[in-house]
Amino acid sequence: MTGASRTSLRLVTLAWPFVLIVILQTVLATFSLQVTSSLRAFVTGESLWSKGQHDALYYLSRYVASGDPSFVARYHEAIAIPMGDRAARRALEAQPPSVDAAFRGFLAGGNHPDDIPSLIWLFRYFRWLPIMDACIRDWRTAENVLMQLQPISEAIDTSRQTSDAERRDLTRQLDEINALVTPLTKQFSDRLGEGTRQVQTVLLIGNTAMALLFILLTVWRLNTFLVHRRYIEEQLSHNANHDALTGLPNRRLFEERLATALAQPDTCHALMFIDLDQFKAVNDNGGHAAGDALLRRVSQDLGRAIRGTDLLARLGGDEFGIVLPNCALEDALRIGMRLRETTEAIDFVWNGHRYSISASIGVVHLAESSFTLQEALRAADIACYMAKEKGRNRVHIFETTDAAQTQFTANLNWVQRLHRALEEDSFRLFSQEIAPIDSNGAAVEHCEILLRLEENGKILAPASFIAAAERFGLMPALDRWVVRHALDIIGRRKGMASGTYSINLSGLTLKDDTFLPFLRDVLSRSHVPGSALCFEITETSAIENLDEAIAFMNAMRAMGCRFALDDFGVGMSSLTYLKRLPVDYVKIDGSFVRDMLTDRADRMTVEMINQISHLAGRQTIAEFVENAEILAALRTIGVDHAQGYFLGRPQPFLPDGLDTIPLSHADVA
Q: Domain range holding 339?
């Protein structure tokens, strides 16, 4: 099923009750108009009938009184009307009914030709109604009385000479007939009026009931929509604070709880970082599915081994963090040892292979000194690294007087390596295609510019150094290097004005007040239009300082630049954040896209992100598109763009006219 078909099916599912009610309302309104029109024609016909029988008696009485033969002619004209109606009635009561004969009869009864079909329709299909049946009986009874005029008129037609005695007898007969037919005529007229009012009341009730049903259905559907929207927002809110794989709190909620704990005076808390030691081996040998299953198992076992007041969170990858409120150092150490033993005791089997894992745990007692949030996180990170450095599968307590720890911190040489790379221009730019999933127009270049580091002839992926650069505040410098060199290359590429080049910006750069003047300057010197640039920022960095981020993005958008919200779904910000952030694209995190064909929860997450993004007026880009099946599924969902190895691997980003350089094996990561 295509995306358009799926959307149409959803619209039909949502709208069919309303369509049905509108059809029923239309049918009822049409029926009401038909019935009302038929009743009006019937009342008009009854009026003509009553007038005809009254005039017939009147003209016949005038003839008897005066002997003027002109009154006989006028009598015949008047009596023709009830006689025509009588013929029509008898034609409709015949088996089978004769519609043509009934039409001629009603026409002879003085009825308008346009009204006669309504008269026939009402008589044929509604004579079974009690009120209609009673009206027809009154009509038939009055008609039988009126038929007594026939022998009188025949006698008059036979002999126009009448004696006084005969006139007195005719007058007496006419008076008797008039005395009988007048109340019957009135009864017929009253009954018809009553029937008309009853039918109109029923139609009014029916139309009112249908309108009330429509209102109730609208309210019900609206309530259903609002409930569904609240559910989505609750899911977004939950996912904003919880890890999708394990269900544990994520880094965002973890840091919020830690910041709250640090803000409490005269209390002692503990902080713990846990890193699984053999997780990469499980991932490499068993695949991502094995790694995900192991993470879920570890999450459950660790959760059972901590106190009820402790907060266990997944910080990313195979890293976990624990905030232990009101916890003495001795208790934190004991809990840390229990967690290590719990992890070591996990017997994990996948596809017949048994894996042994352990955990390196870093503990920071927050009462030892005054920590800021970042200092506490860094201390726990260092303590966890120290546990790994000392042989893994151990618990290390952060101590500022620990000489080995100090030495380890000093030996973190990435800072020096990155500074040297900046000075020697050892970084390299690569690009990866971002392709529209359904493209009908001419292809224009749309790619993400990626940073690599070249050392000793090897190309290193950013996973090797980005974390260190972020930890030690070097990302703004790296972002400036990327922007400067990217603009230089873009300016020498054909069609650059119509292309889109995505450049990643870190959260630290968003806070850098000097970056905007820098961007204005390099844009001016490169002659590259701002509309050619699309800056990618992660969801977490955008909402960490939301107001600052929005101001920063608006300032850059004033230069024509666009924005993409990267890794969306990992932090899963609420709809409110997405609506407020002035972004053009939402990049669906590859962790959901990668397994969406086998994991229904991942597919539903992709669908939900795509739907919410489109509702917010954003285009979507799916990462980690590694095969044709994933691309087909994304097309069905309605995702706008795709990026991944199936569409193209990262390639050196060079000006036109230069040959590409071979990729190192290290760049495959």
A: 251-410
CA–CA separation, 145 vs 79, rounded Å? 13
CA distance 530 to 562: 8
Residues 492 and 635 in one domain: yes
Distance of alpha carbon 41 from alpha carbon 106, whole angstroms: 11
Does residue 10 surpass a pLDDT of 80?
Answer: no
**Are 28 and 149 found together in one domain?**
yes
Q: How many domains are there within the chain?
A: 3
In a domain, 237, yes or no: no
pLDDT in tens, 580-629: 889 999 999 998 999 999 999 999 999 999 999 998 899 999 999 999 99
What residue has token string 């230089």? Answer: 488
Identify the weakest region by mean pLDDT among 34-38, 390-394, 635-639.
34-38
Residues 187 and 266 in one domain: no
Does residue 231 sit within a domain?
no
Cβ pair 563, 557 in contact under 8 A: yes
Where would I find the H helices in 500-598? 507-510, 515-526, 539-544, 546-557, 575-580, 590-594
Structure tokens at 143: 């008609």
Cβ(609)–Cβ(586) below 8 Å: yes
Distance set, CA 157 to CA 60, 70, 83, 162, 306 (Å): 11, 12, 18, 11, 119
Q: What is the CATH number of the domain that holds 286?
A: 3.30.70.270
Same-domain check for residues 164 and 75 = yes
Q: Which residue has the tokens 């259903």?
A: 224
Using CA atoms, how far apart are residues 576 and 416, in angstroms rounded to an integer? 41
Phi, psi of 245 (to 5 degrees): -80, -50
Q: Which residues pair with 272 in a beta bridge?
A: 322, 363
Residues 334 and 458 placed together within one structural domain of the fold: no
List the structure tokens of 152. Answer: 């009188």
Mean pLDDT computed over 65-89:
82
Contacts of 59 (CB under 8 A, 6+ apart): 71, 72, 74, 75, 78
Domain assignment present for residue 63? The answer is yes
User: Long-range contacts of range 551-557, CB-CB < 8 Å, 24 or more positions apart?
Assistant: 552/510, 552/516, 553/581, 553/582, 553/583, 554/582, 555/516, 556/516, 556/519, 556/530, 557/582
Strand pairing report for 619-622 and 353-355: unpaired
Is the domain of 148 the same as that of 216?
yes
User: Residue 256: how many CB atoms within 10 A of its CB?
Assistant: 15
Residue type, position 617, single letter = G
Output the DSSP codes for 427-456.
Answer: EEEEEEE-EESS--S----EEEEEEEEEET
Write the DSSP assignment of 363-384 as a string of letters: EEETTSS---HHHHHHHHHHHH
| β partners of residue 275 | 319, 360
- Helix 116-126 to helix 99-108 angle (10° resolution) is 130
Q: Which region holds residue 377: left if phi is over 0, alpha if psi is between -120 and 50, else beta? A: alpha
